[in-house]
Amino acid sequence: MIIDSITKKYKQQVVLNGLSFDFKQGEIIGLVGKNGAGKSTLMKIIAQTVQNFDGSIKETQNVGYLIEEPKLFGKKTGLAHLNYFSAIYGNKFHRNEYEELLKGLQLSGVLNRKVREYSLGMKQKLGIVISLLNNPSYVILDEPTNGMDIETSIEVLQQLKKMAKERNIGILISSHKLEDIESVCSRVLFLEDGVIQEEQQVSDQNHYLVKLVFDTPTELATFQKHQEFGTILRSSDTSVELETTTNTADVFQFVNKLGIRLNDFTTEKKTLRNVYMNKMGGAKHGA
Ligand SMILES: Nc1ncnc2c1ncn2[C@@H]1O[C@H](COP(=O)(O)OP(=O)(O)OP(=O)(O)O)[C@@H](O)[C@H]1O
């Protein structure tokens, strides 16, 4: 799917400002940003529930979505919902096709119960299954783990990951829970004031952010000349910050071998949270 130069205004307020990105089937992308950044608006535009915008979206065939709370009928059972929404999409609901997913989401046992007896998390999970009934190529999920406890969130995210792979579905997920996003997404977009400020790849391998402080600029220059640990993010007269997959002990050993002395050394694991804090100003943005 190609999202090209999307601009959306509500009255005079520019909510999305020439925003572009593309995503493929089978890929899971995260969308993060402070309240009001424009995440839901972007998702509604992709899901085609909001019109009147500038720019274009190409290859939007068959998009399933769960945006805000799922629209459910309290007096109907979960199963009745699945039959009803399948019929709207022109399909018949074949339970066996969804059994593994329903079991994984622990919904199989409650499908005959009325939805008004469901917890918020159960309703969200039913909403996720409904978003998949049209055999979509892409699914847009706005804060899908809202109202879910930690165990349920993990379960749901793992099921989504499996489905993206098995059914070749492209999934766009927004959330303020950065750990959730990090656990399933291969790529994360940071949205601020209607534009993508930053795009981060999420790696399966551990990455570390390391800061080394030397006594003299000459020692720093020696280190920089010989190091092959990773990417240098910043440097000053006597210090350097780099991103590496090498563990701390190996960095120390390398510095020793060069015969130079470290004055100070800090390291932290690179997480989506600390990258977000660094780039977007962190806590004040509320993610
Ligand atoms: N229907 C609407 N009419 C007018 N303004 C709107 C409408 N929908 C959203 N907005 C405004 O657009 C901006 C972006 O809202 P949006 O819901 O897309 O943000 P968000 O990133 O999803 O926020 P949150 O994290 O709180 O869900 C906000 O300033 C909001 O007030």
| Structural domain tally | 2
CATH superfamily of the largest domain: P-loop containing nucleotide triphosphate hydrolases
Mean pLDDT: 90
CATH topology of the largest domain: Rossmann fold
Strand order of the largest sheet: 5-6-7-3-8-9
Tell me which ligands are bound: adenosine-5'-triphosphate
Top CATH class of the largest domain: Alpha Beta
Q: Report the principal-axis shape.
A: elongated
Q: Report the span from N to C terminus.
A: 27 Å
| Radius of gyration computed on alpha carbons | 23 Å
Order of helices and strands: EEEHEEHHHEHEHEEEHEEHEH
Question: Which architecture of the largest domain per CATH?
Answer: 3-Layer(aba) Sandwich
Low-confidence stretches: 282-287
Helix proportion range: 25-40%
Beta-strand content: 25-35%
Q: Characterize the largest beta sheet: strand count, sense, and whether it forms a barrel.
A: 6 strands, mixed
User: What is the number of helical segments per DSSP (H or I, 4+ residues)?
Assistant: 9
Structural class: alpha/beta
Give the total of beta strands: 13
Description:
This protein is of the alpha/beta class. The protein has two domains: 2-201, Rossmann fold (3-Layer(aba) Sandwich), CATH 3.40.50; 208-269, Alpha-Beta Plaits. The chain contains nine helices and 13 strands. It has helices spanning 39-46, 78-88, 95-104, 120-131, 150-166, 178-184, 217-226, 248-257, 272-280, and strands at residues 2-10, 13-22, 28-32, 54-58, 63-66, 138-142, 170-174, 187-192, 195-201, 208-214, 230-235, 239-244, 262-269. A six-stranded mixed sheet has the order 5-6-7-3-8-9, with helices on both faces. Strands 11-12-10-13 form a four-stranded antiparallel sheet. Strand 11 (230-235) and strand 12 (239-244) form a beta hairpin. The longest helix has 17 residues, at 150-166. The radius of gyration is 23 Å and the shape is elongated. Residues 282-287 have low confidence and may be disordered. Adenosine-5'-triphosphate is lined by residues 10, 15, 33, 35-41.
